[in-house]
Amino acid sequence: MKDTFSTRQFPNPPLRMKAGLSARWLFCVTAGTVLLVWCSVDAYLATGLKFLKTAERPPIEEYILRRNNLAKALVAEDVDAFVVEPGFTFSYYANITQPEWEVWEPEERPFVMIIRPERLSDGSVVANTSFLVPSFEETRARLLDMPFEEEIHTITYEEHWNYYTTLYESEIWGDTLSPVLMVDEEMRDFIQRGLSSNGFTVVGLGGEVEAVRQVKTEREIGILKAVNTGTVEAIRAMRTCLYPGVTENEVAAILDDTMRAAGLDPFFDIVEFGKSAALPHGGYDGSRKLEPGMFVLIDVGAHLYGYSSDVCRTFYPPFFSNPPPSKHNVTEQLDVWQIVLDAQSAAVNAMVPNATAASVDIAARSVIKAAGYGKYFTHRLGHSIGIKAHESPYLNKGNFGAVLRPGMVFTAEPGVYVLDKFGVRHEDVLVVREDGEAENISGGFAHGPWDP
C-alpha cells in the first residue's frame, strides 16, 4: 500500500507524537507502517510497563559508595589516585558525561577528577576527590551539581600554565614524591603523556580498581533489569504486529518508538531478515523485505538512567504458521535455533562464582561445536554490561585471567551464522549470584521460534 499518511486522518496520534518527539517521518511512510507503530506501542503499553518498578535513579549516597569502594581498591593496589576525564567512568563516579561538560567535542584543556584514598582516625578508608580545571571554567564546574555532599575541591590553572605541573605541585600529594596515578581507556593519550612527563607515574586500569565497576550494586542491577526487560518486551510487542513486506529499516524505527513509550532511550538497532542475519553486526542497507520463512534477528540497546540494555532475539513473524507450511524447508533453521538456545543454557549453568570468563564461553562453544556448527560461531560469548553496553570482563575462550564474582553482570549471546542462508543469536543479560545460579534480568529466556 503506497498511500501517504496525514496525521489529520487519525484522532489519536501515536505516543511518540503525544510526547512531543519528532514525528515528521509519519508524513511519508506507508499506511501499513503507521499501523505497525500504533499496534506495537499499544501492545507494549498493554504490558503495564511493570518492569520499570525495579529502577530507581541513583541518589547521592550511591555515588559516595562507589567512590569509597574505589578508594579501598586503590589502597589494595598501592596506587595514590585514580584520574579520569568526563566520559563513562567519570559518569559512574560523578554523574557527568563528556557531552555534559563539552557538548561540541572533547577539549584540549584538561578537566579531570582525581580520587585519592584517605584513611580516617578509625582506620576506615574513604575517597577524597579534587578536580583539575581551567580557572575560567571553575564556576561552571561547580554548577554541574555533581553528587557530592560538600562543595567540590578544585585545583585551577591559567591558560599559559603547565596544567600537569600545577597538579603535581598541589598540596593534595603531601610528601609523596612521584604519585602513582591509575587511568582507564577513556583517558586521552596527550593527558597521560603530560602527567608522565611532569612527575607522575601513570599505570593502566587493572586489579581491584577495575573490579569496582565490574561488580554491580543492587540498585544498578535494578536499573539494568528494568531497561533490559523493557527492551525484550518491546521486541515481543513489536513482533505481534509484523506483516509481509515491511523492511528492516522500518522495523528498527518502529522498535525505537516502542521503547520510547516507556521512557527508554534507544541507541542502536540491528534488524536483519533471512540472509542478512548471517552477518552478526549487519552490513546490508536495511532494505530487505520480510517474507514467510525468514528468520527475524533483532539485537537492540537502549538507555535508562544512564544504564544500557543489549539483548537479541531470533524468531519467525506471526504470519508464518507453526508448524511451517510444507513448501518452506526450514528444518535446518529450526535445528540451529534450538542448538543456539542449548548453548546459551550451557553458558548460564557455567556462569558461577570463581569460574573463569573463558570457561563460560567454552561451555557454550562446546555445544555448538558438537552439533557440527563450531566454525559458524564466530565471536565471543559475551561481555559485561553497565553504563556502557560493552564492559570488561569479556567472555571469550582465551580469558582465563578474569574470575567471576557475585554481582557481575554479563550477556550470554551465542550464535550461528551460515553465510547466504541465515543467522541465529539469542542474547540475555544475567547476574552472577552467590548461590551459583545466574539470574536472568532481561525478561526471561526465549521459549521458541514463535515465542521469543
From TrEMBL:
Source superkingdom: Eukaryota
InterPro entries in UniProt: Creatin/AminoP/Spt16_N, Creatinase/aminopeptidase-like, Pept_M24, Peptidase_M24B
Ranges for domain Peptidase M24: 226-434
UniProt name for this protein: Peptidase M24
Organism: Dothidotthia symphoricarpi CBS 119687
